[in-house]
Specification:
Largest sheet of chain B: none
Number of domains of chain A: 4
Strand content of chain B: under 5%
Radius of gyration of chain A: 31 Å
Helix content of chain A: 25-40%
Number of strands of chain B: 0
Helix content of chain B: over 70%
Number of helices of chain B: 10
Structural class of chain B: mainly alpha
Oligomer: heterodimer
Order of helices and strands of chain B: HHHHHHHHHH
Chain lengths: 658, 293
């Protein structure tokens, strides 16, 4: 009996602990402002999804609301007059949209919107165009609330809508063989928040190209009924599947603490699953790409490993990677919470690693966009730029700095090198600032938003050191995960941290890089060594003045002239090498347009190298960072010989066909 | 029956080996011509090479970035060079643009000279020039015919392929079909091109052997082509494979060497030049082997 009693006691304790740990595991990570319960039926022949969406939304502001705003982004693909397609000039990813037939367009319409009491509020719906006033654009809808929504209150809405998918445009849509990617496919409330001036209001922009995500964190309970030949992948975790016995099946997913929900359907996906720590990784891949499955899964694991070690824990239980078939490639290369779409090619060679680069890029978006939920529309640099920085680091870490992206017949490129070139090769890298809304950046978007930001972060890392940079990013991630930080939030956190940790003032760097358009370019202009002539002129000898005609001394006066050619200012190191092989490192604030370093001694200066460790990664020309009086002729001869031989080969080949 | 087949096959193989060895022997016998053609190519290539040297020296010659590219390609160094000194290579490209077409015309003369010497078993440089001058006009016509057939063949193979392919991003279920399609169409295309090349070659040897009008040479070349196409094509393929092998061998030797010291650079330069010489010799060997079929 006593033994029994002890077991009962232990069991009770275990149950309590288990319940406690369960409740800890299940405690919300975010404020969960929105709660969706979606029941979707897909008619794959008509390319339409019929949906009932029960939405609960909490007014966390101090305002009483009389209006709600929703994204209706599928309407961006309704006709050529929408803001999205007008700004794309009818051409998205190289496809001419203007030649599309009736079936190829997409739209979304709300048929009914009921209040908690059952009243139909559809009359209060009205499309609005807060950004450009384009009356043809229906990507944002406003709902006038018949009853005011008080601060702290929750509104319950029962929304019945129909989503007609377009033939794929900018990821969303259908393709051959019943392929569907459902993104931006449901009415989603915008974010009611304080702007930079502290005023509360709706942040709910129209759909512009390249600006996609900004929404509240929430929970999505998703039930979809589809033909049983379709394989489904979705954000979140699969919680159930039911065969309806009529050729359809109903699949349930649950996604918690996410800002969006996407799903994919295709009959021919092959499925591969692995588990990494707490994360279930699921790869959906067309049969013709199956030979690449290990590369996909390895890249995902590398991303998880690196980000966990250097930034923080991956907060979600799953990750679904979708590799679209060729005909649906335009739905690839995109990130959604817990679901990413990539792109590959049949028998893609192992030494071309765009596949890995893409997986890692889209995966890192799970941190910067999905978890640290910045506003991509207004401050795209905060997700694309951060993601590119980590994509470069992860790729170079696992595959080698100079060959991580490709290594074909001796021609190599590192991922970082590639990102840097996207910025430095812009026809005009000073074309504009990066800290501005995406719709204002008409050209050079990738070079500026992705690559210049990544270059800025790498430069900061160079100045602070990698370990300190990791600490800073860990702090940023921990502070702002499941929140909506703005640019100034990051800047303040980083500046305070850098000041305290490295006594480095990051404010001027952010000011110049994010809000300025100047370039960074330092150059060693010249080196000169002059043997000093001593004792020339008149010298006092008692009362007399004695003339001396001097002598050539052993002493040498050396001069190193360094120029700041660009407008950006960074503190720099300059490595000076002398004729006896000794080296010294000079520090320069980098502010002056010209800085001259002078030496007097028995040694000559033979070379000077500004920023020899390439800490200032934003420098647009590394070749002029160094100057030597002992130029290395070997590479010049080597490439001259190569050029001659290459030309001989061309002549040989062209004469053969004659 | 089986023994007969094996015997025929054996004889066939022996003949083929003989043709190849004769070809190589001819390549050696024609060494003066090989050297002459080699020097002509070198004389054209060297000034451009010197310009490359000057451009590098003037732009990044004082930079320590050169140390980075000493042992191999470095994208950052090359791209920064192109971003800031890209304009300096424009004159080089300009030179290249007229050197290649001019050399193509010169090649007609060189081919006429080489073929003349090979077919008539002459060895002298004077004969090479004589033959070059004599057959230049007819060879020009044959090469124009080849060029027209080349365009026609390109249209015949690739236009239907492009129509079949449609818009691959929308019409094809899988790119596997596309990859296999390109491989098949590409192979057919290359086989066709090689056959056209052999046809032109036959016109040229008919012209040299029979000293007739170009129209008759075309007709005889066609007849010769029909008669010996299979054996000629096999010879052509063997030489193509030998050539490929030589390229792989050359790359395997030169790639890992780098440019650590002046001696290594000189060694690689010598290898490069030997390879160029070998390729010209191989061409003469091909001419000879084909003429024996």
């Amino acid at each position: 009996m006593r033994i029994m009693g002890r077991w009962v006691f232990i069991s009770i304790i275990l149950v309590i602990f288990s319940l406690q740990s369960r409740s800890q595991d299940q405690s919300p990570k975010s404020d969960r402002i929105a709660h969706y319960k979606m029941d979707v039926t897909l008619d794959h022949d008509a390319k339409k999804a019929k949906c009932r969406q029960q939405l609960k939304w909490i007014n966390k502001s101090p305002d009483t609301l009389s209006e709600m705003r929703f994204y209706m982004y599928l309407n961006a693909f309704k006709n050529l007059e929408t803001t999205f397609l007008k700004n794309s000039r009818g051409n998205v990813f190289g496809q001419d949209i203007s030649e599309r037939g009736e079936e190829s367009w997409g739209w979304i319409e709300i048929n009914r919107i009921n209040s908690k009491s059952g009243a139909d509020w559809a009359d209060g719906l009205k499309y609005i165009q807060p950004n450009d006033g384009n009356a043809q654009d229906q990507s944002v809808i406003s709902l006038a609330l018949p009853e005011p929504l008080l601060p702290g209150d929750t509104i319950g809405l029962d929304i019945y809508f129909l989503a007609k998918m377009p033939q794929i445009i900018a990821r969303a849509g259908y393709s051959k063989d019943d392929y569907f990617l459902f993104v931006h496919w449901f009415p989603q409330p915008g974010v009611y928040e304080q702007d930079v001036n502290g005023n509360w209001g709706w942040n709910c922009h129209q759909f512009f190209p390249g600006t996609e995500f900004y929404a509240d964190f929430g929970v999505y309970e998703f039930n979809v009924t589809v033909s049983d030949h379709l394989i489904i992948g979705a954000s979140g975790v699969k919680t159930g599947e039911l065969n309806n016995g009529d050729g359809t099946k109903t699949i349930q997913y649950l996604a918690e603490d996410v800002i969006d929900f996407a799903w994919v359907a295709y009959p021919f996906f092959e499925e591969y699953n692995i588990k990494w720590n707490h994360v279930d990784i699921r790869l959906l891949i067309p049969p013709e790409h199956c030979m690449l499955k290990d590369r996909y899964l390895t890249a995902a694991v590398q991303g998880l490993e690196y980000m966990t070690e250097h930034v923080g824990d991956y907060p979600y239980p799953s990750l679904t990677i979708v590799d679209p078939p060729l005909h649906a490639l335009r739905s690839g290369l995109m990130e959604y919470p817990m679901l990413i779409t990539c792109g590959s090619f049949y028998r893609m060679p192992d030494n071309i690693r765009t596949l890995e680069s893409l997986v890692i890029h889209e995966f890192v978006h799970q941190y910067f966009m999905a978890t640290v939920a910045t506003n991509e529309k207004e401050e795209a640099w905060m997700d694309e730029g951060f993601v590119t920085y980590y994509e470069d680091k992860i790729m170079d870490h696992y595959y080698g700095e100079n060959c991580s992206l490709y290594d074909v017949l001796g021609y190599q490129s590192g991922n970082s090198e590639n990102s840097r070139q996207e910025y430095t090769q812009l026809p005009n890298p000073s074309i504009g600032t990066i800290a501005r809304p995406g719709w204002e950046i008409k050209t050079g978007y990738k070079g500026l938003v992705y690559s210049k930001t990544a270059g800025m972060l790498r430069t900061i890392e160079g100045l602070m050191g990698s370990d300190v940079m990791d600490e800073m990013m860990q702090l940023y991630y921990e502070t702002w995960k499941f929140k909506h930080p703005k640019g100034p939030d990051f800047i303040q956190l980083a500046s305070t941290f850098a000041k305290a940790k490295s006594n480095l003032d990051l404010n001027p760097i952010f000011e110049q890089c994010l809000y300025g358009t100047e370039l960074s370019d330092y150059a060693v202009r010249s080196i000169s060594n002059e043997q000093l002539i001593r004792d020339v002129g008149l010298f006092d000898d008692g009362d007399e003045k004695v003339f001396k005609d001097g002598y050539q001394s052993e002493m040498i006066h050396s001069q190193v002239v360094c120029d700041r050619l660009g407008g950006l200012v960074f503190p720099l190191e300059i490595e000076i090498t002398f004729s006896d092989g000794s080296k010294i490192t000079e520090l320069w604030s980098g502010e002056e347009r010209r800085k001259v370093f002078e030496y007097e001694g028995e040694k000559r200066v033979v070379s000077a190298h500004i920023d020899p460790h390439r800490k200032i990664y934003l420098d647009v020309n590394f070749n002029n960072n160094s100057y030597t009086l002992r130029p290395n002729k070997k590479p010049m001869l080597k490439y001259t010989a190569k050029a001659i031989h290459w030309l001989q080969n061309v002549l040989q080949f062209s004469s053969f066909i004659m | 029956m089986v023994a007969k087949c094996i015997t025929i096959q054996f004889i066939h193989n022996v003949i083929m080996i003989e043709r190849i060895t004769h070809g190589f022997a001819e390549g050696w016998k024609q060494r003066k011509v090989v050297l002459l053609v080699y020097f002509i190519q070198l004389v054209i290539a060297v000034p451009i090479g010197i310009q490359v040297y000057q451009v590098i020296e003037a732009s990044i010659g004082d930079s320590m970035s050169l140390d980075i590219i000493q042992d191999g390609f470095n994208r950052t160094v090359v791209e920064d060079f192109l971003n800031f000194h890209g304009a300096s290579i424009t004159p080089l490209l300009g030179t290249f643009r007229y050197v290649v077409p001019m050399f193509l015309v010169l090649s007609i003369f060189l081919h006429a000279g080489m073929l003349g010497n090979v077919i008539k078993s002459q060895r002298r440089i004077a004969d090479f020039f004589k033959s070059g001058v004599k057959h230049f006009k007819h060879f020009l016509i044959f090469d124009l015919i080849f060029f027209l057939l080349f365009i026609l063949w390109t249209i015949i193979v690739w236009i239907p392929f492009l129509i079949w392919m449609g818009n691959p991003l929308e019409d094809l279920s899988s790119e596997r079909v596309l990859v296999i399609g390109i491989a098949i169409a590409g192979s057919i295309y290359l086989v066709g091109l090689s056959l056209l090349w052999i046809l032109t070659y036959n016109m040229k040897i008919s012209d040299i052997r029979d000293k007739i009008s170009w129209i008759k040479s075309v007709k005889r070349g066609w007849g010769l082509w029909k008669k010996s196409i299979s054996s000629q094509w096999i010879v052509f393929i063997i030489y193509a494979l030998l050539h490929l092998l030589a390229i792989v061998f050359y790359m395997a030797i030169t790639d890992p060497i780098g440019a650590g010291s002046m001696w290594l650079i000189v060694f690689v330069m010598l290898l490069q030049q030997m390879f160029s010489l070998f390729r010209i010799g191989l061409r003469i060997a091909l001419f000879k082997s084909l003429s024996l079929t």
